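ping. complex inputs:
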Amino acid sequence: MTVKHWFPLALGVVVALLIPAVTHDNYVIQLLNIAILNAIVVLGLNFATGWVGQINFGQAAFYGLGAYTTGIAAKAGLPWITTPFLSVVIVMAASLVLGLPTLRLRTYYLAMTTIGFGEIVRLIIVHWEPVTGGTSGLRAIPGIGVFGIGPQGQVQHYYLLIAVLAIAALVAARIRQSSLGRAMIATKDSEIAAEQSGVDTTRTKLIAFMIGAVYAGLAGCLYASSIRFISPDSFSGTQAILLMTMLIVGGMGSIPGCIIGAVGLTILPEALRFLGQWYLVLYGLGVIAVIVLAPGGLASLASRLPRWAGAR
Amino acid sequence: MLQGFSKTMMTGAALLCLIGVTNNARADAAACPATIPFGLTTPLTGNLALLGTQARNGAEFAVDEINAAGGISGKKIALTTEDTGASSTDALNAMNRIIESKPLVIMSSMISPHVFAQTESVNKSETPFIVGATNAKVTAQGSKWLFRTHAHDGQLAELIPEYLVKSLKKTKPGILVVADDYGLGASKGIQAALTKLNVTPVATASYAPSDKDMSAQLLEIKDKGADSLILFGRPSDITLVLKQMGDLGIKLTTIGNTSIVAQTTLNNLSAAEADGNYAIGGMIPQTSTDPKILDWAKRVQDKYKVPADNFTVSYYDSVFMLKSIIEKVGCDKPAIRDALAATKDFKGMLISYQADANGDLTHTLGIYRNKGKTPEFTGPIKESGF
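pong. complex structure:
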């Protein structure tokens, strides 16, 4: 890694760490906490969609599965430390069952299946009321804590979530550089060519799909334990589309792009609140503008800047 | 150099503490600021906007009237409204934003999952919290800050079966509800109430909030020999159900929540589709015979281009209730909370409010019947024990 790569990364880390020192506004910190959780989920979505090229609308459902597994387990009295593992086991099992039959097929089958999967998960949550709380959701979910030690208040949650996001981004970067990452990109570029080169494309797609689900499941676990209330509307089809939009706007296939897209599209509606009901118009126009003017997403703008500067 | 820096910092910190202490000493607990800040979170965009705007309309209309008449003891109310959209996460964001502006009281919408998501944050801020959320469990959360000024589905679940069986003499009802927090919560309560009356529903069905075709559920209810239909939903989907009943030729005595008599529903139905249907719920102004109330409903409609409904009335009354309390106890949050908890016979626009141990203030509901496209007030019905 050169200075050109290190500098923006270091600057980003410093800014992220300094935010709570600059603002003591709990609203801002909580908003950033939700943005960080979205960033983790979008990083997960990037495996199957950004790197393997499979359209996945099931990420919100995996997010919800992780959140509900944690909520139900923690409220049943299980120690918090067990909940991330339980969430991972559940989402891995679900993604395996969903991915095995569908990822053998090409084109849009995964998109169709994951839309159906999201609806099935929503209906189970809504109608299995004694366990999930139904449409009223689950309240008073125990917070994060290991042997009685856990984050207190929004700021401490913020630092914990920043740490988890950093680990999630590092793991994603490592995977991208590995042979598995190269197999993912090869599968996206041309499945036939990748298979001719010895890549098991079905296995690659399944692994990418499952890793993405694990990211969403872990983010769901952290969401349930930090917000302490979950309801089906937070993991709906609308959320699935929003996650996909975050990925596209940020930049498909780019780790910084995932983070920029998630943080940007979480904060933007709040930043535009002063416009009242017109904010949706500006929000929509902004998203369209990014897609049209920067098809590679916001992350691609950074790489264009030196070219623009040189052209002058 | 470091020592010098530390000393400067400590002196600065001490000065800041001193300023803080002086300010606190100057503050009088009951004194109101120059403008009295009220906060409201409600859905103004998304698929719940039709409902959410009613809360905004009621609260805003009351604030405008109070301010035009000189405010509360000469001080104007400043109402800040934040849009929650349709998701609980966004509702929590909107509430945190409101809380950071340090309002004296906070109102939230009729959407129960939003209120569930917000309650913990409001409790921490120790601010009186008035909601219209209809899930019976909302006031059972054990929050000493939370109060509700609208009828809840627990009351409807008790009163609708009772009226259907005892007054309308129907013993073979079918149940059809919207599959959201409101409808499914009510369905469960209705089934329990029917069991107490020794009546078993012939069929129980639901539809998703976004569904447009409910004919399968309606035909199932008809085929199982129902003599009546208990219907729970939002105005948009209730309109579709009643239209499809007309299309399918299903004629059943229909009773449900006030969406059946809401003006937004009736505007989209023919007289034949609307006629004869019953509703029990919060009070609606259009059926009043009092010219003052009818004039109020007309002014609300003229201003917002949407007819006032039971929620508009409830949020309007909430603001006037708060005005009355603040005039008595000042701008001290715990005192306002205590006064809300001690409310007895506060005269609202259409009913009197009385607090129970949970913080529920509404115990009188209205029975309505559509005559053609015009809802008529049949009479009040009270929750048992009130």
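Residues 201-227 of chain A form the longest helix (27 residues).
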